[in-house]
Task: structure prediction
Amino acid sequence: MNIIFLGCPGSGKGTQAKMLGTKHNFYHLSTGDLFREEISKKSDLGLKAKSYIDAGKLVPDAVVLDVIKNKIKDIKSDILFDGFPRTIEQAEGLEKIMEELLKVIDMVFFFEVNEKEVINRITARRNCPKCGRIYNMITSPPKNDESCDDCNVKLNQRDDDKEEVVKKRMQVYKDQTSPLISYYRMQGIFHIIDASKTVDNVYLQIVNILSKK
Ligand code: AMP
Result:
C-alpha cells in the first residue's frame, strides 16, 4: 500500500511519517529531507534546490519528478510520500511514474490544522542533526536544554523555519499545494486527519484508517 501525506508546512506530517515508517514498514520518502541531504553533501542537486528552499519557494516540478522517478524505481516496500506531491503537475507526474512501475496510490491523508497554530508550531520546531528526531520547544521539548534526548547533540532550527520564510511557505502552500485537496478528494482516496490533536492522537487516527483498508 502506498500513501501520501498532504498538508501545510508544520502540520505534523514529518513527525507522523517517521513514526509510521518505523512501526509499519513504510519507506518514508520525504522530498524535503532528500533535498536537505543533498544540500549537506553540496551536490549539484543540492545547490540547485537550496536557492528555492532558502527563499521559501518550491523546487521546480521537473527537478522534483526526476528525483522521485530515480528514487522509487528501486523501492520494493510500501512507500509513504511526505511533502510530495506539492503541485497538480507533480501529482499528475507521479501518477504516470506509478503506472509505469505498476504501482498505485491507495490513500491520501490530509493533515488539517489551523494556520496560526501552525506558525507557532514551526517557529518552535527543532531537529537533531544526527538522528533527525523532531522536537517542539513548546509541546514536546527535549529533556535537557536544547539537546537531543537520544544523541545528546545540540538541536538545530531549519533556516526555512524562521518567521519570514514560513510566511512565504504558507502562501506557496495556499497557491500551489492546496488545489491538491480537491484533486484527491475527487479520486475517493482522501482521508481527513485532525492534525491539531496531540502527536499520539494523530497517530491513532491514521492507524485506524489504515486498518480499515
Ligand atoms: P519540507 O521539509 O517538506 O517542508 O520541504 C522543505 C522545502 O523543500 C520546501 O519549502 C520546498 O522548497 C522544498 N520541497 C520539498 N518538497 C518539495 C516538493 N515536492 N516540490 C517542490 N519543492 C519541495
